[in-house]
Amino acid sequence: MIRLSIPARQALGKLTLPVLIVGAFGMLLLGKADTLLAERARMALADALAPIYAALAEPLGSVRSVAEQAADLWSLRADNERLREENERLRRWQGVALALDAENQRLKASLRWIPDPTASFTTARVVADAGGVYARAVLLSVGPNHGIRKGEIALDERGLVGRVTEVGARTARVLLITDLNSRIPVILENSRAHAILAGTNGPRPRLLYWPEGSPPQEGERVVTSAEANAFPANLPVGVVRHSASNAPEVEPAAMLSKLEVVRIFDYGLDGVVAPEAPTRPGLRVSAGPPLGSR
Amino acid sequence: MAAIDRRPGIRPRATLGRRLDVTARHAFPVTCTILLMLLTELPFGFAAQTALLPSLTLACVWFWSLYRPRAMLPPLVFLIGMLLDLMGYLPLGVGVLTLLCTHGVAVRWRRQLAPQGFALVWLAFLPVAAMAAALAWALTALLTFRLIPIGPAVFQAVLSAAIYPVLAIPLAHAHRGVADPERA
């Protein structure tokens, strides 16, 4: 260790904070100039922390489920009543759905319809909230040899959750449809009008750019559109709700606030990929073949 | 350094266990801050869990910079800020800058504030929390070239102010107990 005189050491001590503040400004610039650097650092950190999170998520989940069970016991009777009624209604709908499905199959057979390829999927546990004050995302713990790639689509049991934006060695980050940076091509189911679903960081993303003459109706279902080849058609997204200021918003079908398990689907789409410099070598080593080679 | 070590005189060399004890006590503020940060990332399922990480970090850095600046040195604050940026998905450097500014303010006001009671320290923390949230908001907006809603920033400031008393009680106990090198 270098021995310094006491005044010199004091002077150095006083200098540390200003120098580090300048360093922080440098980091701001660096982060802006090379966004990949921050992304890789984040995924490396997430990979390192994922085992801890995964280990802690299990007991945490059981504690939560015990609490939920206790709450369920309270509302058992009311729930039963409601479920009986809902079951009755769904049974009627099931009949209708089966008849429609059979008719659909018959019509498709007579039209020589090329069926959509069935997508392969992996199921992954949500281990941490990967969002921040100004971002909405979740971190998934996936096995070491996962084969998940950027741009794949995450769904929970009810509807669209988001897209995979960053892939690490054993983690993947899914940007939720509510994030400020999320833009999704959608179709309004009744009018078949195209629109864009834009996240606002709030619980309900907004609808933008619908064609004139077919405004989104309250309660209308919204599904994904195959336009731009980023999503397959007809994945359920949510229903239209109008905000207090009469702007059309979408209430997501997926339970984005309490995600526990999501399925990552590989539809083999290569339309719009999350931004990344494709020429950098070695980046996709863990993420399977490059997108262009399919 | 324990009080006995400041007195001149010849003493036997401190044993390994004692030196480890002193080091652990010195490392306590930073370690507990980082552990608390990691805890906030677990999927508890609260409504606004994402605001917890920056608020908690700010309160921790403020507390330890005020009462134990020798254990919360600027380079360590820099490190904590970097962790905050990476874990909180803020633009790189935003957390570092806000935490360093908070640390600077705490160290500057230390002589006046540290002897005061809890209420006054908390009162002084309110504008600091507001300024930190405003700075983070402004920098994020500037770096993403976009006007982001101000709601989350306001919420973050309020949460920081609200979380400080909850955090200060156990931290004050630790400050006098497990984190005190004099007791090694």
Properties at a glance:
heterodimer; A: 294 residues; alpha+beta; Thrombin, subunit H; six-stranded antiparallel barrel; six-stranded antiparallel β-sheet; 3 helices; 35% helix; 23% strand; disordered C terminus; B: 184 residues; mainly alpha; 72% helix
Order of helices and strands of chain B: HHHHHHH
How can the largest sheet of chain A be summarized? Answer: 6 strands, antiparallel, barrel
Taking pLDDT < 50 over at least 5 consecutive residues as the criterion, the unreliable ranges of chain A are: 275-294
Named CATH topology of the domain at 119-272 in chain A: Thrombin, subunit H
In sequence order, what are the helices and strands of chain A, one letter per element? HHHEEEEEEEEEEEE
- What fraction of residues of chain A sit in β-strands? 15-25%
Rg of chain A over CA atoms, rounded to whole Å, is 24 Å
**Using DSSP, what is the number of strands of chain B?**
0
Average of per-residue pLDDT values of chain B:
86
Number of helices of chain A: 3
CATH superfamily of the domain at 119-272 in chain A: Rod shape-determining protein MreC, domain 1
| First-residue to last-residue Cα separation of chain A | 57 Å
Our measurement of the CA-to-CA distance between the termini of chain B, rounded to an integer number of angstroms, reads: 9 Å
Number of discrete domains of chain B: 1
Cα-atom radius of gyration of chain B:
18 Å
CATH top level assignment of the domain at 119-272 in chain A: Mainly Beta
Whole-number mean pLDDT of chain A? 83
Tally of contiguous helical segments of chain B: 7
The CATH architecture category of the domain at 119-272 in chain A equals Beta Barrel
Molecular structure report:
The complex is a heterodimer of chains A (294) and B (184). Chain A is an alpha+beta fold and 294 residues long. Chain A has helices at 6-33, 35-74, 76-111, and strands at residues 120-129, 137-141, 153-155, 160-167, 171-176, 183-188, 193-198, 206-208, 221-224, 236-242, 248-252, 261-266. Among the domains of chain A are: 75-111; 119-272, Thrombin, subunit H (Beta Barrel). In chain A, strands 1-2-5-4-3-12 form a six-stranded antiparallel beta barrel. In chain A, helix 1 packs across helix 2. The longest helix of chain A has 40 residues, at 35-74. Mean pLDDT of chain A is 83; it is low at 275-294. Chain B has helices at residues 3-6, 16-40, 52-67, 74-87, 94-113, 118-144, 151-176. In chain B, helix 2 packs antiparallel against helix 3, helix 3 (52-67) packs parallel to helix 5 and helix 6 crosses helix 7 (151-176). Classes of the chains: A alpha+beta (294), B mainly alpha (184). At the A-B interface, helix 1, helix 2 and strand 1 of A face helix 4, helix 5, helix 6 and helix 7 of B.
